[in-house]
Amino acid sequence: MAITGTTERTTTPEGRDAFTKRLPDAPPLFFAREAAGLRALAAAGARVPEVLEVADDRLTTTWVEQGPGRTTEAEERLGRELAALHRTTGERYGSVDGEPTAYLGACRVDLTPTETWHESWVARRVIPLARAAADQGRLDPATAALAERLTPERLGPPEPPTLVHGDLWGGNRLLDRAGDSWLVDPCAHYGHREVDLAMMQLFGGFGGRAYAAYVEAFPLAEGWERRVAVYQTVPLLVHVLLFGGGYAVQAGDALRAAVA
């Protein structure tokens, strides 16, 4: 999800090509949390840019030279690599390192470590975001109240806390000249792997072979298609808070489908 700031290709003192994002008056820990997510994903074997420098108002990573675009082979490789990433598990849901502060785009979200996935996803994210949207007049209060009806059963069969990218829309995946996928701008946390699969379907940018290869490598629990809506609620509510407009309709549709 986009933020207001500047980006530019830069060069390190050692002569390495780099990419620098700047955001004056960035909220607390904004770039530090992105850097922590990139490092956690890298430690799990994901292909991500290396963090070179992080400060309160900027983040510098290695530069990724982008290639011509998606191919069937590239999509299949991404699916298998994402499945491998999702085999990395933790002890609790939420933050990768215990710090509860996180940002989905420019919207602050709560990743306080929890013992249950329902508390992490619903109690600390869906419900607070829905209430905030209603309080700001961006979402009908009756629609926002649907978040209260999201029971643990709506989230699918229990799975261990899984390391996810957390904001895996098409703009946060880069393809290099070799056709390899790089993951950028994460809201990485330990959650449910269907979070990434649902986000990939929200705004497009991924081919069908990516999903097929993923399922072949790491089958999903029965009924995952019905749970796409519940795992799209958070990013849609964030869009309601940041941009308003038609996103309220989409968020309402997702909440209704999630509790149907």
From TrEMBL:
Record's compositionally biased regions (Low complexity): 1-13
Keyword annotations: Kinase, Transferase
Pfam families: Fructosamin_kin
Key word Transferase present: yes
UniProt superkingdom: Bacteria
Keyword Transmembrane (UniProt): no
Region of interest called Disordered, as start-end residue ranges on this chain: 1-22
GO molecular function: kinase activity
SUPFAM superfamilies in the cross-refs: Protein kinase-like (PK-like)
Record-stated family: Belongs to the fructosamine kinase family.
Name of the protein in question: Fructosamine kinase
Natural source organism: Ornithinimicrobium tianjinense
